[in-house]
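dumping this here before i forget
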Amino acid sequence: MNAVSKNKQSGFTIIEVVLVLAIAGLIFLMVFVALPTLQRNQRDTQRKQDMSRITTAVASYTQNNKGALPDDQAKWTNFMEKYLKVDGDAFADPTFGSYSLSYKALSDTATPSTPVSETGIINVYPQRKCNGESLETGQKRNVAFAMKLEGGGVACQSY
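structure:
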């Protein structure tokens, strides 16, 4: 009888290893391509929530001030300190630090337009209201807040 030696080697072939590494590399690449977009969208969502927080604070302010709104830059700055930064709360842009309010007094004859400014600056438009991303003439007790979003577009919210 002949002794037949069976030589079986266990393990993966080089093709199998390369294939697994290529698939892992593609998954890794997809995560790193999608991650910045996801983070930017999360920051823009936070900015939109902060805009809602402003309108809630304005409602509180008007209740405490006989229906009146702040009517100049100094009063809006004071409003921000008293109503948005209560008990040491941070009212800050997720990327650029503290928000700043920029009061934009528009004459009655001016055509309202879409604000474009830097991210982190909230523009305050008296007697205006939002129509999507643009502004239109409102009533005396209306005020619109608008801010440029990092992902493009404008967040606009009215009171």
